Amino acid sequence: MSSTSSPSTATATATPAPAGAPTGGAPAAAEGIGWVLSPLLELPGVVHAVIATGDGLVEAASAGLGRASAERVAAMTATVHAAARAFTTAFTDTEQPRLAQTVVESELGFAVVVPAGENTSLAVFTTPEAQLGNVAYQMQVQVAALGRALASPARRQDAPRS
Length: 162
Hints:
Blueprint: H1 37-41, E1 46-53, E2 58-61, H2 67-92, E3 102-106, E4 109-115, E5 120-126, H3 132-151
Antiparallel strand pairs: 1-2, 1-5, 3-4, 4-5
């Protein structure tokens, strides 16, 4: 996988969160979840990020990742996560183990996948020089923010006053 986008210029392609959402605010689910990617894409070495459903569909993707690539990443995210779960089951005889993260290392960098709620995963691709501890920590922060956002009830507009 190659990329010409710089980590400092990569952006998410979905609707941004309202002010303060990643640090505790919670947008309604209908407003989109791409805001989860923005803080990740600002980290040194993070090239791309994708939020994918468990069946391999794209929920949000970094702007520098083309649609076809984002769809392949989402499909592979589901496949890699399922394979990691099966791999863990084979070693432990534990059905449905809960994964914390799946990491794939290559000479081009690291692909990191973490569960991001019910039937959702968050995946990033980094350069080989990225600080994986920092990336993994920020991924968990963003997953927690996403969980708060999706658990919040939708805001109702007040009826117009006469």
